[in-house]
Design a protein that fits this description.
single chain; 690 residues; Lipoxygenase-1; six-stranded antiparallel beta sheet; globular
Length: 690
């Protein structure tokens, strides 16, 4: 990782400044234009300002940037590896092949444990024009780069693994990072503890970063490369004596039984690693109670007791002291009473303390209660953790009174408006209506690294090309690429996978199933979108599954993505400049849905969700997972989240005024200009502030 890679990934720019050279030198210009031509092969292009600046550089500097930039853009498009499908003349070869030929080839390949592949001659492919929307790489300066780091560190949302790596690189590369952001500037506890763990590794003090025992647990978890959300278990690493002494010294100042009880099993393991008896009698005493499973009082225990006894007034009085917990339990408390007047009193009490609830929690609550006046037979939840899994819970949920939910929504919006009004004025604002289909980003800790980043559930335009081409590349055990076709009600209509390479009725074709990839392998699926809506297809889901073997994170390499093609039988099978998205599949799962396509509305729905493990004698495939796939589709399509359109409209109301056209605005929120769904770091740092 280096500055060029980070700035291209996060800013679509390179950090450069004027360098003495010979402006207009023909040799220099030729080198710069050569670099530009090479980048265009991968769908990137240098801006005019970058070209002019580079032409004034000396040859050595241009060569240095050439060597650093090309590998980055190659990797972003997945073009840093060799793609060789089983059928090299895909898709025409598969379309024309007899079913018997495909069947015999598959059987012999399986009999050979993946060692045998059919020996087909790769035929010349026609060169045809492909319309490409290039990603422009502009100029960034040191201030822009530093501002990016500040946004990442101070984001009011969890960081993805990629962003954690960037922050860690920055602290270890730039000594001034220690003075750039203070502990008080970091609002999100998980991120504060991630930074604290980095500082511990740098042998720096972290006193201001730890306020509770749970913070110490998160720091220790981060030091062991675990899930700092504490949703999963961590295999704690052996820590050095100075680090153990540092953590226990901090823990001694903040430890209490309630915090230990909340994550008791994790603490029992960590206490063993910390050797607490060697450093603190106070900590050892509480650790002994946890190990021996002795009673420890807690706030949540009291809340649960009141809830079980349906003592509404008592539980409300208790929760009012902790507004954040009140927000998370508000729906549950309201359901304890059937009297609207009593529910209104609960809402009034909550609204009176809502100003102490973090912005992100308020937005989650707003999204939830916008729909609670409607009864439902199920609810959709997205449990936190390092692997994102949408879960559909089948349970009858009675509607709340519309006036009750309206009072909650109005109260939250008023609180947010008051909070946002304290920020800098925006002046005239234009909010793109398309942003109403883009959720506020949440739980980015589990987001996959890719060519672009948007929130799960975001809908993007599909474009006008008719051929959709999925691709995967991996090294290691057998991974399979599949496509499933679903009706309006998410029911499965058809699939294309290793068990069904051809679907003439749905114009979909698989490039052949490769089961062994010690040196890398690839698979493709082509889908002609024309006419699918008329056949009842509403959604197409891309599925990546480990047939049998380790989790994705345990594979050496696994990429997945899609292209949009005009001429599927022309140009190379893998054409980097047509790649719309490429992600690194590294989750702790064996089943992933990266993306779903809405055929009717011609939209791409970003999903990036893992599925629950399915054990089946036939292996891990779409046949044994179709019910889970249908549920995941429902979860992502029918999410109840506040949209970016709503969020930015609240900012506009609090800090400026709405205008009808982008040209009339000082601040634009849209799909392609100003603040966009792709600017997750900006959104989390500047528009979800507390």
């Amino acid at each position: 990782m280096n500055k060029i890679e980070i700035s291209i990934r996060k800013l679509n720019a390179i950090v450069i400044s004027p360098v003495n050279g010979v402006e207009g030198d023909e040799h220099n210009q030729a080198m710069v234009m050569t670099l530009n031509a090479e980048m265009m092969k991968f769908g990137f292009i240098l801006s005019e300002s970058v070209v002019k600046l580079m032409c004034a550089w000396d040859v050595a500097t241009i060569s240095q940037y050439y060597d650093h930039i090309l590998p980055v853009v190659q990797q972003l498009k997945g073009a840093d590896v060799h793609y060789q499908p089983m059928y090299p003349n895909f898709p025409g070869q598969v379309i024309a092949a007899a079913e018997l030929e495909l069947y015999i080839n598959a059987v012999v390949h399986y009999w050979s444990c993946g060692q045998w592949l059919p020996n087909y001659r790769k035929l010349p492919r026609k060169l045809r024009f492909e319309a490409v929307k290039y990603i422009e790489i502009g100029i960034a300066n040191e201030s822009d780069f530093e501002a990016l780091m500040v946004r990442l560190i101070t984001a009011n949302e969890s960081l993805s693994e990629q962003d954690k790596a960037i922050v860690k690189w920055y602290y270890k590369t730039y000594p001034n990072a220690l003075n750039l952001v203070s502990a008080d500037d970091i609002p999100f506890k998980e991120n504060k503890c991630v930074v604290a763990a980095i500082l511990v590794e740098l042998k720096q003090p972290i006193d201001g970063y730890v306020n509770t025992a749970t913070d110490v647990l998160r720091v220790a978890t981060a030091l062991s490369s675990g899930d700092v959300s504490l949703a999963g278990n961590t295999a704690f690493k052996s820590l050095s004596r100075p680090v153990r002494r540092q953590l226990i010294s901090l823990l001694e100042e903040v430890i209490n039984e309630e915090d230990i009880r909340r994550h008791k099993n994790k603490w029992v393991k960590l206490f063993h690693n910390l050797h607490v008896g060697d450093y603190s009698a106070k900590v050892y005493k509480i650790a002994k109670k946890a190990r021996n499973n002795l009673r420890m009082d807690s706030f949540n225990g009291k809340v649960e007791c009141y809830l079980c006894e349906k003592q509404v007034d008592q539980v409300v009085a208790l929760l009012a002291a902790r507004p954040g917990e009140f927000a998370r339990r508000l729906d549950e408390v309201l359901r304890l009473s059937s009297e609207v007047s009593h529910q209104m009193q609960v809402v009034e009490r909550f609204v009176s303390v809502a100003s102490h609830v973090p912005t992100r929690v308020q937005l989650q609550l707003l999204g939830h209660f916008q729909h609670r006046h409607v009864a439902s037979s199920h609810k959709i939840v997205f449990p936190k953790g390092s692997t994102q899994k949408g879960v559909v819970v089948r349970k009858e949920v009675k509607a709340l009174n519309r006036e009750v939910t309206r009072k909650i929504v109005v109260g939250i919006e008023k609180c947010l408006l008051n909070r946002f009004a304290k920020l800098a004025p925006l002046g005239p604002v234009w909010v793109d209506p398309a942003l109403l289909q883009c959720p506020v980003p949440t739980q980015q800790r589990s987001a996959s690294a890719g060519l672009f980043e948007v929130a799960r559930g975001t809908r993007l335009p599909l474009g006008n090309k008719e051929t959709l081409r999925f691709f995967i590349y991996w090294v290691g055990a057998d991974i399979d690429l599949s496509a499933t076709f679903h009706a309006e009600d998410f029911s499965l209509l058809e699939h294309v996978s290793y068990t069904n390479l051809k679907s003439d009725g749905y114009n979909a074709y698989h490039s052949g199933d490769i089961t062994s990839a010690p040196n890398g392998a690839s698979e493709f699926i082509d889908i002609n979108l024309a006419g699918l809506a008329d056949k009842g297809v509403r959604y197409i889901a891309m599925n990546v599954l480990v047939y049998s073997g380790p989790l994705f994170k345990d594979h050496e390499t696994c990429y997945a993505g899609w292209m949009m093609r005009d001429k599927p039988n022309s140009n190379e099978v893998f054409e980097p400049k047509t790649v719309e998205q490429k992600i690194d599949v590294r989750s702790q799962s064996r089943n992933v849905i990266p993306v779903v396509f809405d055929v009717q509305d011609k939209q791409v729905i970003w999903v990036d969700l893992a599925m629950a493990k399915r054990v089946h004698w036939r292996g891990n495939n779409v046949e044994s997972n179709h019910a889970s796939i249908e549920e995941k589709l429902e979860a992502i399509v029918f999410h109840h989240k506040v949209s970016l359109g709503q969020l930015f409209a609240l900012h506009a109301k609090a800090r400026g005024w709405r205008v009808q056209e982008a040209a009339m605005a000082d601040q634009v929120f849209s799909m392609g200009a100003g603040v966009t769904p792709f600017n997750i770091d900006v959104i989390n740092a500047d528009y979800i502030s507390d």
